[in-house]
Design brief:
Blueprint: H1 3-38, H2 41-44, H3 59-79, H4 88-99, H5 106-109, H6 117-136
Helix pairs in contact: 1-3
């Protein structure tokens, strides 16, 4: 991991953690305001705020969340290994060397084919007849 990508990931993780904590605090604050407005004492005191509490997440928390997620993605991409070109011939050559010849489809070429059950039944019946005739003789 390079220093720049590691630093970027740490900063982005701290930003995302702060955004999550801020969203939690905002939700707790809204919940407290809503429960205070619904309490029986609010009907006694007409000066209490009767306007509905805002429930949308503030813009700064949303922006902080999006920026932190983008920074995490950039840090992860910077940290990734270089992509290797896809070359069928090189891959097939490596597989052939590792498997000792035969190529990448050796397992498919060497598998058992379909079994002919009727042929096997006929062979078994012939074998039983031969055994039966050998005992009888």
């Amino acid at each position: 991991m390079t220093f720049l990508s590691r630093a970027l990931l740490v900063i982005a993780t701290v930003l995302l953690s702060h955004a999550c904590y801020s969203a939690y605090e905002h939700a707790s604050h809204i919940s407290a305001i809503t429960s205070r407005n619904r309490s029986p004492s609010s009907s006694i005191h007409p000066t209490a705020s009767s306007s509905p509490a805002p429930t949308a997440l503030p813009l700064d928390i949303s922006i902080e969340t999006v920026v932190s997620v983008v920074l995490i993605c950039v840090g992860l991409v910077m940290d990734a290994e270089q992509l290797k070109p896809i070359n069928w011939q090189v891959w097939a050559g490596q597989v052939e060397k590792e498997s000792g010849g035969g190529g990448p489809f050796q397992g498919l070429e060497n598998r058992v084919g379909f079994m002919d059950i009727r042929k096997q039944r006929k062979e078994f019946a012939d074998w039983v007849r031969e055994k039966g005739s050998a005992k009888g003789a």
